[in-house]
Sequence to fold (103 residues):
Amino acid sequence: MVLVNGIENIEAIMLLLTRNLGRHGLRVNQKKVAVWTVKQLQKHRCRDIQAIFAKAGDNKSPPFVRSFVDAYFSLSNKQITGLWNGGFFPLLNRLLSPRWSGV
Fold:
């Protein structure tokens, strides 16, 4: 993932990236290149739902857990499958994994 302030120089950045990666035997898969706005990326990565657990311990607070679960279940199947890594596992891991740490 490459983050830039604007798309004015995107072609030059991609050329530099391609050249530098090529020196190490790596390639850019042009089929996977996408340009997103900040809002689109935040939606794709479910930042609004993940922000419910903003502070340490929020994942152990029943009201926050309930809000997280409600927000997750408000998504349609179509929305979930279009999200980052298929949507299901990243959010489920965010809900459950911290509760298992140290066990």
Notes: The two ends are 33 Å apart (CA to CA).
